[in-house]
Write a structure and sequence with these properties.
single chain, 307 residues, alpha/beta, TIM Barrel, 8-stranded parallel beta barrel, 39% helix, globular, binds ligand PBG
Length: 307
């Protein structure tokens, strides 16, 4: 009876698996704060994306971890940089079976760990960063990505990326906009995952957890600038935001169950304090119920096994 009347169902095709690929390693490296998640080599990434396709996932979101970081995040726009290689590998393996997405942001590539380039006074320079994002969009699209995911929360980023793609002949490449992205402690383990040490904080460009209305304004702007999908992040502590955005959005709404959400459950489960599998399905179901139609989750493969 419960199955018959369930209002919310999870399906593998709406799950997106985030994957990390690191340059210059010969064995995958575990991420200690995210047990079960690794930094892949190019070879193990190939295997992981094939498994993701076989499991029927809707997509993968690729994050590159370069060997060298610098002030402007040069590797992010290197046509042969690790992310661009990973995109090419993934498209070659499974590009006809799932949606290949890539993180479009500089924090993995900068030595100061910010999502953009810095002005002389040390603050993040919004408009100089947009020029870097335009270039990143071009190289990622040249590598064959299907959807770029601008996650840096610079003002005007969706419009700039859309124009850059169109001008380079990549009209068919879509944009998954990180629309409502909060300055959150839940991203803690992600720092380890991408080898980033952040100087300062992201409060000058990510949203204040105290505020909801701003998310609807961000939604309006991203839609006007050309977003194809919009996203709320983190997920579980922001289900109210997700509901408001889902009610207002004419395009699909995704949510990102982030590294800290994963780490909390894994840590409690490792202590025997909670039932891990039930927790995974309950959190995903709740995110879905709150209005997300696609979910980025490090548990995508676990979830499919349980479903
Ligand atoms: C920015 C980016 C971050 C995450 C995804 N893209 C970090 C941040 O904004 O500080 C976090 C994802 C997670 O915590 O799982 N490139």
């Amino acid at each position: 009876m419960r199955r018959l009347v369930a209002e919310t169902r999870l399906h593998p095709a709406e799950l997106i698996l985030p994957l990390f690929v690191r340059e210059g390693i010969s064995e995958p490296r575990p991420i200690s704060s995210m047990p079960g998640v690794v930094q892949h080599t190019r070879e193990t990434l190939r295997k992981a994306v094939v498994e993701a396709a076989e499991a029927g996932l809707g997509g993968v979101m690729l994050f590159g971890v370069p060997a060298v970081q610098d002030a402007t995040g040069s590797e992010g726009t290197n046509p042969d940089g690790i992310l661009q290689q990973a995109i090419r590998d993934t498209v070659a393996e499974v590009g006809d079976q799932l949606v290949v997405m890539s993180d479009l942001c500089l924090d993995e590539y900068t030595d100061h760990g910010h999502c953009g380039v810095l002005a002389a006074d040390g603050s993040v320079d919004n408009d100089a960063t947009l020029e870097r994002y335009a270039e990143m969009a071009r190289v990622q699209a040249d590598a064959g990505v299907h959807l770029v995911g601008p996650s840096g929360m610079m003002d005007g980023q969706i419009g700039v990326v859309r124009r850059a793609l169109d001008e380079a002949g990549h009209q068919q490449v879509g944009i998954l906009a990180y629309t409502a992205k909060y300055a959150s402690a839940f991203y803690g383990p992600f720092r380890e995952a991408v080898g980033s040490s952040l100087r300062g904080d992201r409060k000058s460009y990510q949203q204040d957890p105290a505020n909801a209305r701003e998310s609807l304004r961000e939604l309006e702007l991203d839609l006007a600038e050309g977003a194809d999908l919009v996203m709320v992040k983190p997920a579980m502590a922001y289900l109210d935001i997700l509901r408001q955005v889902a009610d207002a959005s004419p395009v699909p709404v995704a949510a990102y169950q982030v590294s800290g959400e994963y780490a909390m459950v894994e840590a409690a489960a490792a202590n025997g304090w909670i039932d891990r599998d039930r927790m995974i399905l309950e959190t995903l179901t709740s995110i879905r119920r709150a209005g997300a139609e696609q979910i980025l989750t490090y548990w995508a493969m676990d979830a499919v096994r349980m479903l």
